[in-house]
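Good morning C.,

I know you're traveling, so I'll keep this short. The sequence:
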Amino acid sequence: MLASANLIVSTNSARVPPLEHSLFRAQIPTPRIPFPSLPSKASPLARSIMIIRKRCDGNPSISLFQRPGSLQVRRSFAKDEKPEDPVLKEEGPSESDGERGRDWTTSLLLFLLWGAIMYYVFNLAPNQTPSRDMYFLQKLLNLKGDDGFRMNGVLVSLWNIMGVWPLVYSMLLLPTGRGSKGSVPVWPFAVLSFFGGIYVLLPYFVLWKPPPPPVEEAELSRWPLNFLESKFTAGIVFLAGLGLISYAALVGGGDWSEFFQYFRESKLIHVTTLDFTLLSAFAPFWVYNDMTSRKWYEKGSWLLPLSAVPFLGPALYLILRPAAKTVALVSSTSEQK
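The tokens, ready to paste straight into the viewer:
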């Protein structure tokens, strides 16, 4: 009995290798897809936002989330169409990212600025000639016929260019200046700015919350984006502004002296001039916002200093900027019925 037991033990021990030898002999299979190692100096933020995606050939690729504020154009393909590089789903900035990135300090400062401006307009602006202001307003609106009085050339130029400024801002705010999904829409402020100028636009600047929502490609071919994105519209705006500013610059010195006197006495002319100045002051920021949203900053950054030139700088940018259809296309297949 003992002999048979020893025989069994010796036989089993011959079949089973020692544990330490089996561990050394075991080979851990190498992964089929090696994961790329991140740089040791990469910041925690860069590590947290990296996404590893697998391509069809099995090689991983690393992509970063799209920068908040960049314009996305969604394109839908029919069933029989075959896009060259279809992307079924593209990660974009979420609403929570826009909420975290909102600068409440800037909004508060803009709100205080708007409140101070409105207080100045209604309480502190000069108002020595209200009856003359009403007469000027009727003349500028063509509500009075030719009575022999010649209107000041600088005032006429200023009044007409204030009718074109809101169109420039509409072209800058739509679609790249729209707020994120669920925020205040921009179009009511853009429409009312034709009547109230910067005094209506400033509340939208306070409430604005980037990034802008994606734009459907079909939306770019419909009103109003097809009109606002048109190079023909941008050219007409630039030529109109150039003509009005040239007209004001070429009038005699007497008109300018008279205009400065009106500015010190008339609330209408004082408030209108302040409106023009503030629109010119805020324009470079919205040019920068539109430029970065279209991913054109590297090529068009030289236009930023020119955008500080009242009216003509932003109008020139609208002519030279790339069309929205050429930037950041996010392709998506149409839903299966």
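Safe travels,
E.
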